[in-house]
Amino acid sequence: MSDQTFFIETWGCQMNDLDTQRLSGNLKLRGWTRVDDESEASLILLNTCSIRDKAEQKVFSRLGELRELKSRNDVRIGVAGCVAQQEGDRILKRAPWVDFVMGPGNVGHLDEVLEGKRVATDFPEDRRYDYLTMDRPSATKAQVTIIEGCNKNCTFCIVPTTRGREVSRPFDDVVAEVRAAIDSGRVEIELLGQTVNAYRCPITGRDFGALLSAVAEVPGVLRLRFMTSHPAEVNDSMIAAMRDHRNISRYLHLPVQSGSSRVLRRMKRLYSREKYLEVMARIREAIPEIHFSTDIIVGFPGETEEDFQETISLIEEVGYGSLFAFKYSPRPGTPSLKIGEPVDDAIASDRLTRIFEAHERIKRERLDSYRGKVLPVLYDGPSRNDPSMMTGRTDDNWVVNFSGDPAIPLGSLIGVRIDHAQHHTLRGEAVT
Ligand code: SAH
Ligand code: F3S
């Protein structure tokens, strides 16, 4: 066993994926080799998520498995990510075979941890960001963080605790990273942040719309995406940037959480049902072909059947193409714990099912509407389930599996005629 091999396991959201890319790139730069088998590693990193469910228990049970490995091999074990931030040195107490814990604020400070720091859960002023060493898993797409942390403090959410206060990266740094990603052969850029559209350049004050336009205008950017927007931060400059740049994806994930203004107030979402619908109408007026997507929480403390009916009616009114729904999960230390008990679990499960049923018909209608059309698809590799098929995404972010000439270079925009819609995806044939 070489003494400089590492294994990383990643849970959770795109921010965690990106943190893994940064950690991995940093280690490789120092001469470490990444391995896919944990038993071959001299360093094991668990990059953890605590957004819902029994996240902490999952991590401890995984650590239980690794304890055995540690008794056989000379291996260091580190816990990174949001559970590390949330639990801090409690992890070292409960699982003393863990060598260090490091939170999301310390991804750029891995060197201190490797030199022996055991608990790194602060949010350093100096957030080092070495984008040139990022270990990007995709040959066609680069994800770029533009803002870290979140200042919104929704009452159910652990993210403000685990990822800290908002810090935007300088505008010119972001554009330089995008240029470097394009120079390395990538054609698709995805800008990331917990509230990506709260972006403000710390030096010039330029906003998210200005950054979107600047990135869309970097030569070679075939497609530009971004995640996740907050409804209260949508402004005219963002809408105009999307309308005016055809390479900005016609897809907008705009989490609503609930259709009831009463619940939204208790969640501290900073908008009412009416305000949200008004924002959606403004966007749709500017970009009629937009594919809207959302997140919904059912069973928030005090949610009544009437509140829930308002969520169903909002889903129908907006006509979301995609939707993600979750049962409320009480998170340690969040203000929602004081609002009351979660809704009875059986009722929450039933509401979740009814959400998916209501959405199914809307999604089908949208998917069926593409049949017979020729859509530009950004080709990004063989299809996961059937490697004889090619796969890619449309402008409005639907996955398309299609037949065509596999000699076409990855990252090409290909015209694909859509034959039919599957459960979540489209199928077709390349025509160009
Ligand atoms: N702005 C973030 C939101 C993070 S969490 C982003 O980048 O997506 C993603 C989704 O998880 C939220 O929109 C919400 O619907 C859900 N969620 C967050 N906390 C939750 C909790 N305590 N219980 C259930 N779902 C939760
Ligand atoms: Fe969480 Fe609300 Fe921010 S959902 S990430 S506190 S916008």
Structural write-up:
This protein has 432 residues and is α/β, with parallel strands linked by helices. The mean pLDDT is 95. The strands form five sheets. A six-stranded parallel beta sheet has the order 2-1-3-4-5-6, with helices on both faces. Strands 15-16-17-19-18 form a five-stranded mixed β-barrel. Helix content is 35%, strand content 22%. The chain is globular, with a radius of gyration of 22 Å. Among the domains are: 5-120, Rossmann fold, CATH 3.40.50; 138-249, 2-Layer Sandwich (Transcription Regulator spoIIAA); 374-430, Beta Barrel (OB fold (Dihydrolipoamide Acetyltransferase, E2P)), CATH 2.40.50. Bound molecules: S-adenosyl-L-homocysteine and FE3-S4 cluster.
Please describe the structure with a list of short key phrases separated by commas or semicolons.
Transcription Regulator spoIIAA, 14 helices, 432 residues, Rossmann fold, globular, binds S-adenosyl-L-homocysteine, six-stranded parallel β-sheet, 35% helix, OB fold (Dihydrolipoamide Acetyltransferase, E2P), binds FE3-S4 cluster, alpha/beta
SS content category: alpha/beta
Distance between the termini: 49 Å
How would you sum up the global shape?
A: globular
Q: Strand order within the widest sheet?
A: 2-1-3-4-5-6
The name of the CATH superfamily of the domain at 5-120 reads Methylthiotransferase, N-terminal domain
Q: What small molecules accompany the polymer chains? A: S-adenosyl-L-homocysteine, FE3-S4 cluster
Q: What's the architecture of the domain at 5-120, going by CATH?
A: 3-Layer(aba) Sandwich
Mean pLDDT: 95
Assign the CATH topology of the domain at 5-120: Rossmann fold
Profile the largest sheet: 6 strands, parallel
